[in-house]
UniProtKB/TrEMBL annotation:
Domain ABC transmembrane type-2: residue ranges: 131-371
Main location: membrane
Keyword terms of this UniProt record: Cell membrane, Membrane, Transmembrane, Transmembrane helix, Transport
Membrane topology: Multi-pass membrane protein
Localization annotation: Cell membrane
Record-stated family: Belongs to the ABC-2 integral membrane protein family.
UniProt xrefs under InterPro entries: ABC-2_transporter_component (IPR051449), ABC2_TM (IPR013525), ABC2_TM_bact-type (IPR047817)
Protein name: ABC transporter permease
Organism: Methylomonas rivi
Keyword Metal-binding carried by entry: no
Chain ranges passing through the membrane: 26-44, 178-201, 228-249, 256-281, 287-308, 320-339, 345-366
Amino acid sequence: MKASRQRLAGLIRKEFLQVLRDPSSLAIAFVMPVFLLLLFGYGVSLDAKHVPVGLVVEHNSPESREFTAGFEHSEYFQTHYYHDMRTAQQALRAKQINAIVHLQADFDRQLSGGEPAAIQVILDGVDANNARLLNGYIQGVWQNWLNSRAERRGQRPSTAVQLQPRIWYNSALRSRNFLVPGLIAVIMTLIGALLTALVVAREWERGTLEALIATPVSVREILLGKLIPYYLLGMGGMLLAIAMAVWLFQVPLLGSLWVLLVCGSLFMLVALGMGLLISIAAKNQFVAGQIAIIVTFLPAFILSGFLFNIDSMPAAVQAFTYLVAARYFVAILQTVFLAGNIWAIIIPNALALLLMAMIFLGLALWRAPCRLE
């Protein structure tokens, strides 16, 4: 037993010395999460702000000026005025604006006569999601103007029911608060898989793994000697990513950091287990890297719920997402960051990660003797 511990300690020391001599593992663990978080954190946003909108006002009046002021004073719009619809439509076709709001010449007459006053809204529907958001923003400006106008006249609001929205968990409505926690899961999936896949594949190429097998060490000790150092590196990268999310991107952390670290440990074991399986299947660094990107990063990016709502996917794809480990960690991260320690979500997803870690590490241990001969 003592000899086994000494051999394991020697293997761990060997891995750390190799990391110091070839710092590519440090780059994967610490440089890559910083780069990817900066790239995706600042580059990916679901917020539609400062959207160029064309305003066509056929008759300039106090009522029309008051209405268009709602667009000018909103951070969601960047207003452009046009004298006629033809010019505005040309700007829309040229992608200079994303929508047209048209007030016809009889707008004031309809209002003063008590008739329903309508506005024309033309949207660029190429980006359907952006068009839906923009349509909602324009309707909000219209409804706010109607309500304020009714209050000034001592009239009842135009709608019988007044909504008073109350936003839970992300009251600022910042898409970055939702995206950055999911990004941590996606990025750590790739990093965890690359740490073991590329490093072990490198040893296959250099022939050092065969020399290691010639020593009196067991396959279990070899796998543990690979897992422990890169687990520590991966967790260091995850701590760095969490610190960036809280202090750089200002994402609130409402839950416990310890809960996040425990669940992150389970997820890191899953990612490292996938990397070990990849390294067993591919003894070439280039092939191992390609497999890691295809098998781990792409499913985590598309099918984890980080960016695309899983409930909106076809039933067959939804069923497939249960095989993606990042799905469970994304749910934990977004819950712990934005809602707190909601155990009804944390515990089932953590158990799923524990099961997947046991499966991947067990498969790696089972397959290793067949390839490490």
